[in-house]
Design brief:
The protein is an alpha/beta fold and about 325 residues long. The protein is built from nine helices and 15 strands. It folds into two domains: about 140 residues, NAD(P)-binding Rossmann-like Domain (Rossmann fold), CATH 3.40.50.720; about 170 residues, Dihydrodipicolinate Reductase, domain 2 (2-Layer Sandwich), CATH 3.30.360.10. Helix content is about 35%, strand content about 30%. The strands form two sheets. Strands 14-13-12-11-7-10-9-8-15 form a nine-stranded mixed sheet.
């Protein structure tokens, strides 16, 4: 096994691949982007020329058949995650798959089991949690500086409602704000608390102009020890991207919680005794860190920071949120 550079293939030319993940892999310590595939060869060639990718394919199958490719990144629409993860595993490729991993927990578990059976690693592409600031936040919580945690509130909203061709506005493709951005505060709360919620209550706005997907949702997750986690997610609302952890003695505030750009957006604040203290966190590219973590797991240097079953657990919460939103009832997990 080549332990100098992991050879990546990209299945599709999605905006997240071109704007963040391909540059992140190329800037990583461990990876190179060896090939890219698209169902339109011209598109693959255009993207390859932009990023200096040496090999292009006009189908995903051709890329998976390339023996030089060791790992693939899947940025396809949500309803295609399972299909191409299973095909990648069958081809012996390690997989980094965009969030949410699947359309439901049952699909996610099938994907995890297929990768385990094939002897390949599977990682969900929640890049934000690879940035060191989340571990620093967690250390602040453990230290007792903000006291006992009483609640967490996360927001991730944006307004792209006028994009009629957006795949996120199609129900059969796994569209909706809970799938797209609500998954971030759900994941963050589970990570920060090291616990799973036992109930979810969600109120959502389903838009008839957008195939009746949830264009806005507000949720309450009930965690052990009476800790409440609330979140807003939207694809048709004013942009927000924040996280607040409220304790008995103080609180942590992140003003750009899930998008880490160069300083100062990756800093966060501690508010205590009416004083505001900025915690300076050096910028690191979370997409590069994400790629390095998978490569080092493949090489046996260190394990994945987030095991594949974590994605299954996150999907169980998303399942409950979607059920609650659809029925207007509290759902127990």
């Amino acid at each position: 096994m080549n332990t100098t550079k992991l050879r990546w293939g990209i299945l599709g030319c999605a905006a997240i691949a071109e704007g963040s993940v391909i540059p992140g892999i190329q800037a990583s310590e461990t990876g190179i982007v060896q090939a890219i595939a698209s169902r339109e060869l011209d598109k693959a060639e255009e993207t390859a020329a932009q990023f200096g990718i040496p090999v292009t394919y006009g189908s995903y199958e051709e890329l998976l058949a390339d023996s030089e490719i060791e790992a693939v990144y899947i940025p396809l629409p949500n309803h295609l995650h399972k299909e191409w993860t299973l095909k990648a595993a069958e081809a012996g490729k390690h997989v980094l798959c965009e969030k949410p991993l699947a359309l439901d927990a049952a699909e996610a578990l099938e994907m995890v089991q297929a990768c385990e059976a094939a002897g390949v690693h599977l990682a969900e592409a929640f890049m934000y949690r690879h940035h060191p600031r989340y571990e620093i936040m967690k250390e602040v919580m453990r230290s007792g500086e903000i006291g006992e945690v009483r609640s967490i509130h996360g927001t991730y909203t944006y307004n792209h409602a006028d994009e009629n061709d957006n795949v996120r506005f199609h129900r059969h493709m796994g569209g909706g704000s809970i799938y797209d951005v609500g998954c971030y505060p759900i994941s963050a709360a589970r990570f920060l608390l090291d616990q799973e919620p036992h109930a979810a209550t969600v109120k959502a706005f389903f838009s008839p102009d957008h195939d009746h997907v949830d264009m806005m949702a507000t949720g309450l997750l009930e965690f052990p020890d009476d800790v409440a986690v609330t979140f807003d997610c939207a694809m048709w609302a004013s942009p927000r991207n924040t996280l607040e952890i409220l304790g008995t003695l103080g609180r942590i505030q992140a003003h750009s919680a899930f998008v880490s750009r160069p300083n100062p957006s990756c800093h966060f604040f501690i508010v205590k005794d009416e004083e505001l203290r900025e915690v300076v966190v050096p910028y690191e590219n979370p997409y590069s860190l994400q790629a390095d973590n998978l490569a080092n797991a493949i090489w046996g240097v260190r394990p994945l920071r987030f095991e594949p079953l974590d994605a299954v657990k996150n999907m169980r919460v998303i399942d409950a949120c979607l059920k609650s939103a659809g029925t207007s009832q509290r759902v127990e997990l």
